[in-house]
Design brief:
- The chain contains five helices and eight strands; from the N terminus they run ββαβαβββαββαα.
- It is an alpha/beta fold and 181 residues long.
- It has one domain.
- Strands 1-3-4-5-6-7 form a six-stranded mixed β-sheet. Strands 2-8 form a two-stranded antiparallel ribbon.
- The protein is elongated and about 50 Å long.
- The N and C termini lie far apart (55 Å).
- Bound molecules: zinc ion.
Length: 181
């Protein structure tokens, strides 16, 4: 039975209780203006004009018997190419499989295919939930394709390792600040 409801933003519930929705097998989909998402905006180089579309499917996983949320997201974000330092639009999206757990210990014992969602026992704002997931799938680094990047012949040092990329980011950030004005 497909309980997916396509809802306009105004019809989306303001808060959700993921565990309750998983028990009844509910699905929600919709979109938010990126302008509304302050934490995502803080990481962007320019005002995002678009929206993030999402689809959330709450269910009980047949195999593991865990209560789960499958999160699908899609957005176009203004970022900066870390090779040429020019602005670019980066398509961002992905599917995150989350399992609802009640504490850190349960989170650590989850099968590898699940990201933990630690239940707080209270309802959460749907917008915050979607924003958390978008932050999770956002790339730390954006790059033009080899053919379109004006600096394609320049080597990039940070091809491997998230930590290393994270270390490189602050410098890129400084350069971008200078470029802005
Ligand atoms: Zn580039």
């Amino acid at each position: 039975m497909d309980t997916l409801c396509r809802l306009m933003p105004s019809e989306l519930p303001e808060t959700i209780d993921p565990m309750r929705l998983a028990k009844i097998g509910k699905a929600l989909s919709g979109s938010y203006d990126l302008h509304q998402l302050a934490r995502v905006n803080a990481l962007l180089e320019a005002d995002p004009g678009g929206q993030v579309s999402f689809r959330l499917k709450f269910s009980r996983d047949d195999e593991s018997r865990l209560f789960c949320v499958v999160v699908e997201l899609e957005a176009m974000l203004p970022m900066v190419c870390q090779r040429c330092l020019q602005p670019m639009q980066r398509q961002v999206g992905g599917i995150v499989n989350m399992a609802i757990v009640s504490n850190e210990a349960e989170a650590e014992s989850l099968p590898a295919q699940f990201e933990p969602y630690i239940e707080s026992g209270v309802s959460v704002k749907l917008q915050d939930f979607v924003e958390d997931e978008l932050l999770l799938v956002m790339p730390l680094v954006a790059l033009h394709g080899e053919k379109t990047c004006p600096a394609a012949d320049k080597p990039i040092e940070n091809k491997s390792g998230r930590e290393r990329i994270a270390k490189v980011n602050p410098f890129a950030e400084l350069k971008n600040l200078k470029l802005r004005k």
